[in-house]
Amino acid sequence: MKVSFLSKSKSYSDIDNIELISWRELIDMNKDHLQKIETYSLNLIKEKMKKYKEYTSLIPVSMGKDSMVVAYLIRSLYPDTKAIFNNTSLDCADTYLMVKAFPNCEIMNPDKGFYQYVDSDHMIPTRFARFCCRIFKVGVMVSKLDHEHPYLMWMGMRNEESSTRAGYEDEWINESEWGSTKWQGVLPIRKWTELDIWLYTLWKNIDINPKYKKGYSRCGCHCACPYYTKTTWVLDRYFYPKAYARWRKILRDDFVLNKKWLIMNCTMEEYETQAWNGGTFRDEPTQEVIKEFAKYNNLEVEIAQKYFNKYCSECTYGKDKEGNPKPTRIKSKEVLAMNMKLHGRNTNKFLCKKCLKKLYDMDDKKWDEHVKSFKQAGCALFDKEE
Known about the structure:
This protein is of the alpha/beta class.
């Protein structure tokens, strides 16, 4: 592929010598290449259609650039092929307007939307613990379609997207999400590059999601996607202020409800603007973190400090990089409060809930009864009884 954007120059700072070319010129320069990859993909589609002639073809579309190209290729050969859109309930208005206008496309809605799920289950997706794709992106389709019916899924995944997808072949089955279904996936554009996608899209005048034109590199779940970059958060705040504000309020409420000062070692502002989509923010809490935790929980700073980075003195959980057993970290404010209530506020020995229950011969019912009685008595170590 030819990608000649610049004339010869000694430095990128020498802007007077930079000669930009138009998209149309770049398409013309690469017309042979685009026709070649188009022919390859169309032949692959016809080959797989013949191989799986007893299957029902479906095109899962997200209104992103890759799935739109796949839909264009498939329908250029088989115009009546049905598309399906898995409504994550988290896409932007631009995407929903686009999918409503997309012909022969079934919108699959979840039983409970993302925000409802977050509210009822108190789950915030992170890069290390995601539930959103499983439940809202793939899960909706899996729950709606017949597992015993042979479906041929035309997918828009490409090898260059990630190290995982680099190993994908033309035929692919999502075993972890689809389970024991009779479905088969085919990846007709897996060898295409991102530049291929954009040049082909412009060449064939394929619809483009307006979100790309606003500076986004992808158009999937916005605001709450843990894989979006912090640069994207800036775009969200500018282009989708209501959705941005709604998500930030959810983050603040979650931070307070789940006492994430103790889990993340960060302030509420740091969590909201930097840390919510990852793990522990820092190894040790700063004085600002401790003071903020004390303020929100009506504790003296000296007592509040005892809640941070406490480990069970009896049991371990996993191993560190050197292979040594790691003590179980206690993150629950309730468990830490029980330690100080039962052992005294000046205790330096803490136990996890399992070990504490074992020491005092408590089952879950007795534990809850003790916690309730301490709250009703007005003990400042515990959250107030609601």
